Task: inverse folding
């Protein structure tokens, strides 16, 4: 066995994964090669040092409490970071990518429609259809050709909202507020609540502990 | 028995239709500003991911909110703006106070 091969076998030998035949061959080489013996000793020392590292680092009680409070606060607010991620299947991601590509092409072509590229380029009929549906200052301009709106906004808001959204748009505008309605109803009382062990006062200083 | 099932199914279908076609007060979509439309659309997508029970709860709260006098609605909106304006640390403290307040009710 030469040194080059011995070096390759050293890691497996240190991990105890070398088969007996390979181990014997390596031992024969090591018996006559001081350089490889040193290399083996270094590798073994490194592995021992790594193995001696703690797998869990001690965390201060204060940090742990802060983290737990933050998690509880997020849960209370209904925040579920990346809760959607595990549920996205591969076909759904493929469909999403395809839709994103379509939207991107549409945005690019919409922006290009107004540029003087030559006689072959004409504004797409779809763009004309996306002009405001009715006149008036309060009317939405979801995707106006030549407007300065960002592509994200153009792509995200549908021209025709789903029936559920169209039926009660303000419900969805106010959705975050509705989530916190109880907090908001008793906002002042909650603000006045103490975090110490003393009894908290309710609205206007009245004790709400009797609810 | 043969008649009961179709009638039940019909009643359920009609009931679902009533729920689906329920009347909501408030401004129609076209009267929302573009910003409101975008917010509504984004919130609608989040709403779709909520469990049905939570969706119903939010609808109920929306009805309750709509039935409040305008000045009370305004007060809640102001409180919400104040709540939104809280710094993260203040928000956390508020949530803790809320939990404390709730447990004492």
Result:
């Amino acid at each position: 066995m030469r040194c080059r091969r011995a070096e390759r076998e050293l890691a497996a030998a240190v991990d105890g994964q070398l088969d007996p035949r390979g181990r014997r061959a390596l031992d024969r080489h090591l018996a006559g090669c001081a350089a490889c013996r040193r290399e083996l000793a270094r590798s073994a020392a490194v592995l021992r040092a790594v193995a001696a590292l703690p797998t869990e680092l001690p965390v201060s009680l204060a940090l742990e409490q802060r983290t737990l409070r933050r998690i509880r606060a997020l849960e209370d607010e209904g925040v579920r970071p990346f809760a959607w991620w595990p549920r996205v299947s591969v076909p759904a991601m493929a469909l999403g990518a395809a839709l994103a590509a379509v939207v991107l092409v549409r945005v690019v072509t919409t922006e290009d429609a107004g540029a003087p590229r030559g006689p072959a380029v004409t504004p797409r009929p779809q763009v004309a259809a996306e002009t405001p549906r009715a006149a008036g200052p309060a009317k939405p301009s979801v995707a106006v050709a030549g407007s300065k709106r960002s592509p994200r906004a153009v792509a995200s808001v549908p021209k025709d909202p789903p029936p559920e959204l169209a039926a009660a748009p303000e419900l969805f505008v106010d959705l975050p507020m509705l989530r916190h309605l109880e907090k908001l109803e008793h906002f002042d009382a909650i603000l006045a609540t103490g975090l110490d062990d003393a009894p908290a006062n309710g609205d206007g200083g009245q004790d709400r502990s009797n609810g | 028995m043969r008649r009961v099932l179709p009638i039940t199914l019909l009643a359920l279908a009609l009931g679902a239709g009533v729920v689906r076609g329920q009347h909501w007060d408030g401004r129609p979509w076209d009267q929302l500003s573009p910003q409101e439309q975008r917010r509504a659309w984004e919130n609608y997508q989040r709403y779709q991911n909520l469990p049905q029970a939570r969706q119903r709860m939010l609808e109920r709260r929306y009805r309750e909110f709509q039935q409040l006098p305008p000045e009370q609605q305004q007060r809640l909106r102001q409180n919400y703006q104040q709540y939104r304006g809280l710094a993260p640390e203040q928000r956390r403290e508020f949530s803790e106070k809320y939990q404390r307040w709730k447990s004492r009710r």
Observations:
- Residues 3-52 of chain A form one domain.
- Chain A has twelve helices and no strands.
